[in-house]
Automatic annotation (TrEMBL):
<dbReference type="Pfam" id="PF01258">
    <property type="entry name" value="zf-dskA_traR"/>
</dbReference>
<keyword id="KW-0479">Metal-binding</keyword>
<dbReference type="InterPro" id="IPR020458">
    <property type="entry name" value="Znf_DskA_TraR_CS"/>
</dbReference>
<feature type="zinc finger region" description="dksA C4-type">
    <location>
        <begin position="99"/>
        <end position="123"/>
    </location>
</feature>
<keyword id="KW-0862">Zinc</keyword>
<feature type="domain" description="Zinc finger DksA/TraR C4-type">
    <location>
        <begin position="94"/>
        <end position="129"/>
    </location>
</feature>
<protein>
    <submittedName>
        <fullName>TraR/DksA C4-type zinc finger protein</fullName>
    </submittedName>
</protein>
<dbReference type="InterPro" id="IPR000962">
    <property type="entry name" value="Znf_DskA_TraR"/>
</dbReference>
<keyword id="KW-0863">Zinc-finger</keyword>
<dbReference type="GO" id="GO:0008270">
    <property type="term" value="F:zinc ion binding"/>
</dbReference>
């Protein structure tokens, strides 16, 4: 299915271009956020390496928790960025806005709230129930 196939997607080229611009903007924001988080993580490591003299168990625990939080943030940003990258790919393929599970259109309201959604609410709920 092609992006320009407005019969299959129900979208005009202008709509597709607007969606692409929005997805790309969010992807770029996440990339900038990731770069900033990497810099902060590096600074945290440098401070940690240079400031270990006299640390007790509480200090070490705090530094470990801060390091773990920073790593978790980096992983979260990378995951979100990958979701937007995937959404852009789906847009190029002409499958953006359609559920990967049942192929039904994902409601526009859901895509407005969660632009990288790949499942309709019903399929998403089914997945979550199976995972629980």
């Amino acid at each position: 299915m092609l992006v320009h196939d407005t019969v299959a997607t129900g979208r005009s080229q202008a709509d597709t271009d607007q969606i692409r611009a929005s997805l790309r903007a969010r992807y770029d924001e996440l990339s900038a956020e990731y770069e900033q988080a990497v810099l902060q993580s590096q600074v945290l490591r440098l401070v940690e390496v240079g400031d270990t003299a006299g640390d007790d168990q509480a200090d070490s625990g705090t530094k470990t928790a801060e390091r773990d939080t920073a790593q978790s943030l980096l992983r979260t940003i990378l995951d979100r960025r990958a979701q937007f990258e995937r959404a852009l790919g789906r847009l190029d393929e002409g499958t953006y806005g359609f559920c990967e599970g049942c192929s039904a259109p994902i409601p526009v309201e859901r895509l407005e709230i969660f632009p990288s959604a790949t499942a309709c609410v019903t399929c998403k709920q089914s997945r979550e129930r199976r995972a629980a």
